[in-house]
Amino acid sequence: MKYPRPSQVKSLQLDKMKVPGSVEILGFARRLGWRRAFFRGVYVATNQAVRLSIFDCFRLRREDINTELTKTVGGYECRFLAPHEASRFFCQLDSEVARSLHEALARGDKAYVILDGERLASIGLYAEAPTPILSDLTVHFDPPSWYMYRGYTQAAYRGQRLHALGILRAAVELFDLQVPQLVTLCERTNYPATISVHRMGWQRCGALYRVGIGPWTRLGQTATARANGMRLQLRSPRI
């Protein structure tokens, strides 16, 4: 599969956030309530003037796992993907997710998959080293923790909680290999993701932030995030 050069890939996460239309606002309010819709609107509006990124930090340990969500249903196969296997699944993913998988494996990250026969139903990525987020930031965390990111479930398989199944089954396998905990980030107003991680058993452990105006940027973290070894670092943005 041919991958676009970085200059051809638009960063959906860092570029100025799109102001939602009335239909989108109403849909968000119906699903998650007017209070959350309001705060999401304020967050988006602020990003029209400054670069603001707020991430809530979460950690997952063996004793935190919601074991009800680890039960395999529908005859799915759950396992870490061998690097040489990845190429046969690229064509089943949209170009952005396929590119992320390609770049993750090139960095040495691991992919945990849920397979329905030869079809890839869901995938999540796991790193044991500092990991790029957005287009100009890297998240750091203390080893031997691993970082979970980029969970994705194919449209035909959504609604079966495969996202949670994959993350928790991967966590169990890593815990069996003496990994003490997983860590992850949720963007502050990504309420569906926050609800999902809480349901799985993840525990909040502080927050990271970035504020930028023009060439000036400030990165920071709460004391709890610092105690868990989590911090942000600037890197050269994609053009």
Domain module tally: 1
Number of strands: 11
The helical percent reads 25-40%
Query: What is the number of helices?
Result: 7
CATH fold topology: Aminopeptidase
CATH class: Alpha Beta
Order of strands, main sheet, comes to: 2-3-4-7-8-1-9-10
| CATH homology superfamily name | Gcn5-related N-acetyltransferase (GNAT)
* Anisotropy-based shape: globular
Structural class comes to alpha+beta
* Uncertain stretches of 5 or more adjacent residues: 1-16
Tell me which oligomeric state these chains represent: single chain
Kindly estimate the percentage of residues that lie in beta strands according to DSSP: 25-35%
CATH architecture label? 3-Layer(aba) Sandwich
- Overall residue-averaged pLDDT value: 88
The H-and-E topology, N to C, reads as HHEEHHEEEEEHEHEEHE
> What kind of sheet is the major sheet?
8 strands, mixed
**End-to-end CA span:** 22 Å
Radius of gyration: 18 Å
Describe the 3D structure.
The protein has 7 helices and 11 strands. With 239 residues, it is of the alpha+beta class. It has a single domain, classed as Gcn5-related N-acetyltransferase (GNAT) (Aminopeptidase, 3-Layer(aba) Sandwich), CATH 3.40.630. The strands form 2 sheets. An 8-stranded mixed β-sheet has the order 2-3-4-7-8-1-9-10, sandwiched between helices. Strands 5-6-11 form a 3-stranded antiparallel β-sheet, with no helix packed on it. The radius of gyration is 18 Å and the shape is globular.
